[in-house]
Amino acid sequence: MEKKLNRPADRVLNLPPYIFSEIDNKKNALRAQGADLIDFGVGDPDMETPAAVVKELLEQAPKNENQKYPAYNGAAFFREAAGDYMRRRFSVTLNPENQVTALLGTKEGLAHFSWAFLQPGDIALVPDPAFPVYANSARFAGAEVVRMPLLEENSFFPDVYSLPEEVVKKSKVIFLNYPNNPMGTVADRDRLSALIRWALKNSISIVYDAAYAEIVYDPEDRFSILELEGANDCAIEFHSFSKTFNMTGWRLGFACGNRDLVNGLVKLKTNIDSGVFDAIQYAGVKALENAERLASDQVAFYRQRRDALLAVFQRAGIGYVLPRGAFYVMARTPEGMNSMEFSAMLLEKAGIVTTPGAGFGEGADKFVRFALTKPLGEIRKAASRLAALNL
Ligand code: PLP
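Above: inputs. Below: predicted complex with pyridoxal-5'-phosphate.
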């Protein structure tokens, strides 16, 4: 190929088009005209980081010993606190020495995991719909991506048993995410146990994105894949501080589980980033220590909002998937409309910003996503606008 000045690598040029830009452009144009928009688009909590967590950062940041390069895999005190949290909240026992690593947010960890474990010739199994990082990072690593539809008749769980044998043979990694963004569904322990047995039989590692682990509307649905038999042999689980503790801007998470998977990730990361600011890790420990109370407060807020929005949908004749976890509601598009069309209509006719399901994969093109990151007042305001649409 001809050399060209300042040309990005193919892996960047080949990135799929940014599907949200059309909605973003419309949103910005309407805002510029002074439109009063209600934005249910962003998955960024509107509430504040708990005061005790902020206080801890303020206490730890001035200390000189915290201002040095941190440990690559996280400070021992942080890994121990993460291990203790996993034991308290999920009855999972981990060795904090080699089964836990701190992350600069789960997005960073997930993307680097692909780079640490995938290469050309490998297949990565990615649900459709899914958080876009799984597929994009797998492609960055040179792997082929095979999408697994999450079908309603299958409780939005992938049917790995119908994958062709040659796909299974080349599959190295399967990504799973429960509670699920964008569908709001949770996993079933029996199906997951069967999937673990299938993964072990076929030498496929499970990457379990548990970023919303604490945001579940029935306590029974709060669990870790690592509780299940065999998971410790093939699974790595990713936890985030972003959603449970309103800490999206802090960039903090951790990965835990199988030792080889954790160590492979750490080995790669050692050559890329230099860990998380120790003062932020101390603040994270405060959050983990108070997880019981903090998480239950958050879930109470989201439950109120979820129920209010569902009541609005019912009155407006909008169908939906009942969310059991995470803080999103997937609204069904009206007959004959795809997600981009419905999202554009909601914006233009009702001043309501949503995320088209197609942004997460074709499998969600019959849905638009409402994030519950707006106070009740905004949800009530949306009610009359949605009712006026006469859907
Ligand atoms: N995983 C899922 C499913 C998400 O929805 C998000 C953020 O939206 C992330 C991971 C990233 O979280 P973090 O802020 O920890 O990088």
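The two ends are 53 Å apart (CA to CA).
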